[in-house]
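Researcher: Good morning. I'm working through a list of sequences from a screen, and I'd like to move beyond sequence-only analysis. For each chain I'm collecting a predicted structure so we can compare shapes side by side. This is the next one on the list. No need for commentary yet; just the structure.
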Amino acid sequence: MVNGFAWALKAYPVARVIEALGEFMLQRSKIPTPFEIRQNVDPPRAQFKPDKPYYVHLRKMQSEQGPYALNDDETDYIRRYEEHVRRGLPE
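Model: Good morning. Structure tokens for this chain:
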């Protein structure tokens, strides 16, 4: 069993796995599976939800204040929004 956990979690730092294990065990009364630990260490990214007014606001701010007006998350939002639209998905 230990070898199975070690194999399934080998991509993550040991300290973070131990921390996730502790967090899990404080919330539940069972021992977590490697899958449950991985979800705590590396949670799945929330599904992208396009927001056209927010996108327009960011683009306007970028055009008025220059390329350094936005933080990394805002720049990433623009990239994800444009990729979403380019793929023909609903806005």
